[in-house]
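Reopening closed ticket. The problem is back. First fold of the pair:
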Amino acid sequence: MIGLAIGWRLAAAGCPVTVLERGEAGHGASWAAAGMLAAGIEAEPGEAPLYALNRLSQELWPDFAAELEAASGVAVGYRREGTLSVALTRDDAAQLRFHYDFRRSLGIALEWLSGAEARRREPHLHPGVAAAVFSPADHQVDNRRLVAALRRAYLAAGGALVEHCEVAALDIVGERATGVRVDGEHRAADVVILAAGAWSGAVEGLPLAARPPVRPVKGQMLALRMNAAAPLLEHVLWTPRVYLVPRRDGRLIVGGTVEERGFDTSLTAGGVFALLEGAWRAVPGIEELAIDEMWVGFRPGSRDDAPILGPSGVEGLVLATGHHRHGILLTAATAKLVSEYVLGGAVDPAIRPFAIDRFAVTAKEEA
């Protein structure tokens, strides 16, 4: 998603761009995601710069979606019903109230609901739901349709896409990146943009200071099949254990576990059980639904779970990785700000806090 979006912006600006993809474009974390655009409901203490970037990207999304649909002819499933975060017990409600007060202090528009009020909005919630918070500005997009739209728009803008083509190494001459090595051959480039998600740190030839500290954070997810004409849910729903994202076609996405398991692709009994139990506790009616699909994805997590954007310290090498759970949300802002940096050379203040040099180890720390 990130690579295609940046490529689309650069190709549309007249740059010759080639995206090199180790598998099928957009079929990694982008394909596995749920498509939530949740800057408000996910704001956490201690993440002020990340919230500011998330909020910026959320504000860009309506125009970004409309422009992308016009360029591609593909509807991306952008939905504005808003997001509900529910508390199922009194303890859940106390925690929800803490986050509600904190997020309101940031100026986020939220509405506190009683259990009865929450059930009026979503009648299939558990009868004992204690409370809920409604976030009208937290929307969703169908990430798989978004992949298709970005691919088509990028190619229509003149971009080149080479799939099933793994980059073996970054080529550096002197102190400048001059291209990449693929199948033993040098592919020259004026600028190399590293947007390889959870695999970003594995590219050979990266100097240590420019190697993004990104790891795979495993997530197991599943989709249930609702009646599209009478869905169980209309809003994105956050529960104490899982989130549920309804699609117009009747799919109900349930996610997602957070596991430090490396690139382990296995679906586990414990993971699937946790997803189904967490969803059932909030929406008991899911027990009647068929399981449509189950899968595993790898979020690209940095050391501080914030993205790594902009200059790398190596001339000609730009970073756009480490988005962790905010990759879909941050697609709009990353495409805009990274492409503007490539075209103009100026680092926007919004991405300055996310430079890789925040991970630099000083000589004193090494000692």
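Second fold of the pair, where the issue appears:
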Amino acid sequence: MDPRTLLIVIVFLLAVGAGLWFYFQRRSQKLRSMFGSEYDRTVREIGDRHKAESILIKRKKHVEELDIRPLAAAAVERFNREWESCQAKFVDDPRGAVREADHLVAEVMKTRGYPVGDFEQRAADVSVDHPGVVENYRGAHEIAVREERGKASTEDLRRALVYYKTLFEELLGIGEPVLRR
């Protein structure tokens, strides 16, 4: 191969490499912007950025295939009343209130069209449309699991209820998401 052809091939390969690098950088930026802290959590958990990004892309495609719909005004009112009742129970029965909040969030998700299988799948689905509160959801669930083993304090249960409330309000389309502290 003559030097001129070799130079053209090298320049071409460098251009393709640069194009791919820019493509993957841009894709990473979009995913980080879309998923927020869930992006970092997934990368940390998987240990490989490209594999984690593939998982996040699959999540997004999965949720796009679901029939997620807004709630009718009557349903929003009914769920708000149920939440107020749940929250009022906390004083006398914190454990029961947290269990009820968990069930209520699952019911809202089901009514909106989210599949309500195992927790990890629910959290993954929520992370696509509600990345600002999925960390709260994970925190509330973790406390609920500890509560089932008798290892959660009343303060833990209060935090779980606050976490559930942020997701609940986000799913209903009311309030501003509050990130987990």
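Update: turned out to be a display glitch only; the data is intact. Confidence is low (pLDDT under 50) at residues 176-181. Residues 73-172 form one domain. Please close again.
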